[in-house]
Design goal:
Strand order of the largest sheet of chain A: 4-3-6-7
Largest interface: A-B, 51 and 74 residues
Low-confidence stretches of chain B: 95-106
Structural class of chain A: alpha+beta
Strand content of chain A: 15-25%
Mean pLDDT of chain A: 74
CATH topology of the largest domain in chain A: Immunoglobulin-like
Distance between the termini of chain A: 58 Å
CATH class of the largest domain in chain A: Mainly Beta
Helix content of chain A: 25-40%
Oligomer: heterodimer
CATH class of the largest domain in chain B: Mainly Alpha
CATH architecture of the largest domain in chain A: Sandwich
Number of strands of chain B: 0
CATH superfamily of the largest domain in chain B: RNA polymerase sigma factor, region 2, helix turn helix motif
Distance between the termini of chain B: 40 Å
Largest sheet of chain A: 4 strands, antiparallel
CATH topology of the largest domain in chain B: Rna Polymerase Sigma Factor, Chain: A
Number of helices of chain A: 5
Order of helices and strands of chain A: HHHHHEEEEEEE
Radius of gyration of chain A: 23 Å
Helix content of chain B: 55-70%
Strand content of chain B: under 5%
CATH architecture of the largest domain in chain B: Orthogonal Bundle
Chain lengths: 229, 182
């Protein structure tokens, strides 16, 4: 076994991921790959299992007494929607009905509107020009008239069943991105208020979004909100 | 339920977490909180960052318990891995940006002797035997990386070797370990 052929490279990467020598970006890329590449994930589990005894070399350190309360708070909200007898569920049902009503109203509005005499491009119109032959989906952000932003993929972005894409904004001068929500296939509308120069980022997260309020997975897409001049 | 839930295995507790059983979650924390925090502390060398990593790891346990597949690995290996990856990520992304590139003080406790602690379990015994097949310097690289969370650059500084040499030695050590452990 030479350990240097191309076939070995991904398995080396799995071992180095578990050993912990990869830099942060390579490590998140490896974690992301494990979500969709079964042999790679199996290789990671092999190393995790075999190297786990090394954790014995780190002595236990009692966490601060406040940590359990923090963990409880972070996981409490997560459990609410699953409680069948909780008011949150009733609220959710009511909201869903409202959304359906709004959607139905919108559909009627569109259907009843007289056809436009000629295309005037009152609505934001866009085209995305990608390298010919590229099969990678792209993401576009389009500003609406009221300053809201619609972010949508040009084609479906495939992620594992237990993952979601999450959108983040990093305004100029900020050091930590702010979460804008999980990005559904249909796209996401961001309320007005994102300043020009803001970086928009999309990361791969566990289902439902980052557990920490900060990106935990690989950042897959990024771009800067800019003015056309 | 007593805090440590006697009679329930870690697998039982994780399965109960998947059913939203908060007492089981509390018991799992009582059992593993100190271990995960200790692993994170060794990597971050900062009690606030270690607590952050432990927090994130347990939040992931709660959220992902339903997807934990016992046939794919021991609970302890899964739990420790969650904390290690979070600690490594925090220290790479934030800790060392803030702290700058400081040389890390010498720690005497990663000399070959503590390796005898591995002999307490069957898996640890196999790992101990395979680590002994590496030269001392390469064994040291592997241990510093896994336990202390050293990056390639830090390993190179610590052992006064070129980064390329460190990378290639680690790769060769992993190939050797894989053959020995398989």
């Amino acid at each position: 076994m030479s350990g240097t052929s191309d076939d070995d490279a991904p398995l080396d990467l799995a071992a180095e991921y578990v050993l912990g020598t990869l830099d942060a970006d390579d490590a998140t890329a490896a974690a992301q790959r494990a979500a969709s590449d079964a042999p790679f994930a199996a290789e990671i589990r092999f190393w995790e299992a075999k190297l786990a005894p090394l954790a014995e070399l780190a002595p236990e350190v009692a966490p601060p007494a406040s940590l359990w309360t923090r963990i409880e708070q972070s996981t409490q909200a997560d459990s609410l929607p699953r409680a069948a007898n909780d008011n949150a569920l009733a609220w959710w049902r009511a909201s869903a009905l409202t959304c359906l009503a709004v959607a139905a109203g919108l559909a009627a509005f569109i259907a009843l509107r007289p056809p436009a005499p000629a295309p005037s491009y009152a609505l934001p119109i866009y085209a995305v020009l990608a390298p010919i032959g590229s099969t990678q989906p792209l993401l576009v952000a389009v500003a609406g008239q009221q300053g809201s932003l619609l972010i949508r993929a040009t084609a479906s972005i495939q992620v594992a069943a237990d993952r979601d894409l999450e959108l983040w904004s990093l305004p100029p001068g900020a050091t930590k991105p702010a979460p804008l929500g999980v990005l559904p296939a249909a796209g996401l509308t961001v309320p007005p208020g994102q300043p020009i120069g803001t970086k928009l980022l999309v990361s791969l997260e566990p289902k439902g979004g980052s557990p920490t309020g900060q990106p935990t997975g690989a950042v897959l897409y990024g771009g800067v909100l800019s003015e056309l001049d | 339920m007593p805090a440590e839930a006697p009679g329930l295995s870690d697998r039982d507790l994780i399965a109960a977490c998947a059913q939203q059983d908060r007492a089981a979650f509390r018991a799992l924390y009582a059992r593993w909180g100190g271990k995960l925090n200790g692993v994170a502390m060794r990597i971050t060398r900062d009690s606030a960052l270690a607590a952050d990593a432990t927090h994130d790891a347990f939040v992931q346990v709660w959220q992902q318990a339903g997807r934990y597949d016992p046939s794919l690995g021991e609970p302890g290996s899964w739990l420790v891995s969650l904390a290690r990856y979070r600690a490594l990520d925090l220290v790479r992304r934030r800790g060392r940006e803030v702290l700058g590139h400081q040389p890390i003080e010498e720690q005497a406790d990663l000399a070959p002797d503590p390796l005898s602690q591995l002999l307490s379990s069957a898996d640890g015994g196999a790992l101990h035997r395979c680590l002994q097949t590496l030269t001392e310097q390469r064994r040291r690289l592997v241990l510093l990386a896994f336990v202390e969370g050293y990056s390639h650059t830090q390993l190179a500084e610590r052992l006064a070797l070129p980064v390329g040499t460190v990378k290639s030695w680690i790769r060769r050590s992993l190939v050797g370990l894989k053959e020995c452990l398989s």
